[in-house]
């Protein structure tokens, strides 16, 4: 998408939609929001909607950081303790590894 062609009001609307969409357990939308709107929020000359876009970009970055932290922690714990959890660890797995750990 070429953001240069959109008026500032539509940029703000799109940024807000991606920000709110991240709350639907879709942190990828926050990543897209940060990548797409970073230049608009922090590197362009000031315009009316820029302060709101900055807010959404900052909050999207914080939400993304939170999800990356949570998922990394969960993956690390699961990989480390899956064998000790026995059947519960196997039930939580999509693919059950063969053999013994």
Distance between the termini: 47 Å
Please give the share of residues in helix: 55-70%
Mean pLDDT: 92
Strand proportion: under 5%
Explain what the structure shows.
- It is found in: Golgi apparatus, Golgi stack membrane.
- The chain crosses the membrane at residues 20-39, 60-81.
- The mean pLDDT is 92.
- The radius of gyration is 20 Å and the shape is elongated.
- By secondary structure, the protein is an all-alpha fold.
- The chain contains 4 helices and no strands.
- α1 runs antiparallel to α2, α1 runs parallel beside α3 (50-81) and α2 (27-42) runs antiparallel to α3 (50-81).
- The N and C termini lie far apart (47 Å).
- The protein has one domain.
Summarize the structure.
The protein is mainly α and 101 residues long.
């Amino acid at each position: 998408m070429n953001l240069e062609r959109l008026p500032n009001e539509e940029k703000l609307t799109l940024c807000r939609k991606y920000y709110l969409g991240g709350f639907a357990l879709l942190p990828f939308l926050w990543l897209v929001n940060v990548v797409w709107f970073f230049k608009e929020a922090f590197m362009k000359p000031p315009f009316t909607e820029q302060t709101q876009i900055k807010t959404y970009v900052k909050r999207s970055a914080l939400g993304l950081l939170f999800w990356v932290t949570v998922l990394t922690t969960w993956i690390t714990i699961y990989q480390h303790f899956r064998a000790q959890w026995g059947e519960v660890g196997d039930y939580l797995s999509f693919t059950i590894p063969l053999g013994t750990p």
